[in-house]
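[09:14] KT: can someone run the structure on this one? pasting the chain below
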Amino acid sequence: MNKINLDLIKNVIAISSGKGGVGKSTLAVNLALALKGLGGRVGLLDADIYGPSQALMLGARDLRAESIDGKFVQPVMRYGIASMSIAYLMPEASQPAIWRGPMVSGALQQLVRDTEWGELDYLIIDLPPGTGDIQLTMAQKISVTAAVVITTPQDVSLIDARKAIEMMKKVNIPLLGLVENMSMHICDACGHSSAIFGKEGANKVAQEYDIPVLGRIPLAMSIREQVDQGCPPVVHEPRGVYAGYFFDIAKKVIHYLSLKDDQKSRMFPDIDV
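[09:31] RB: done, structure tokens below
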């Protein structure tokens, strides 16, 4: 099956989760911005056709993508990264995509194929939750370098994280590792932390599949507020504590990509810390 030509993109990284509400889009946007902060040329594709959120998280909800030549669409540039989302193509941000599966799969292929990405070191794909049409289309049509699975520590999330991992294995997409979100709650008032969703959940799954835990992100009001305001932590306060979690994950992503056998995944930009 023919793959979409992405020869100018060195690494395509899919961010996946077995269920919604675990912070997948928050990880995707902050990881993309952190990789940019480390010196990379980065693109961010919002592959959640039914529930796109990257336009909001990037503070670009009112922007629309445009075509210069009538063939390719220019990505929306925000904070130095090239972003594309179905939200940029809708007449209104609140308009839903009421489409059946084949239409959604076709829309994803168009977003990838018809966007003028240019030369990128990393294209981050923010997948919808689950293991359905979008994930299958991605595996069949896009040469994905590797995937990152995000989960929370609680058992109900870990069950679905295993499903996401199993799917990646079945479609031969290498796994870089797991990210545990909401690993602890940090009180903004006193700084006390408590593991309200449980402990060591990601460790259990990582040991089962012999993959690393790339990082643990706390449940903090500041992260939620900054993302909702369209200025994620990595941009809002790049030297802050919360941005540090995402920069650490980005550094590990770069490290594990460098260990892959595929020569394509060893082409990296100079890293400025």
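[09:33] KT: thanks! The chain has a mean pLDDT of 88.
[09:34] RB: yep, looked fine to me
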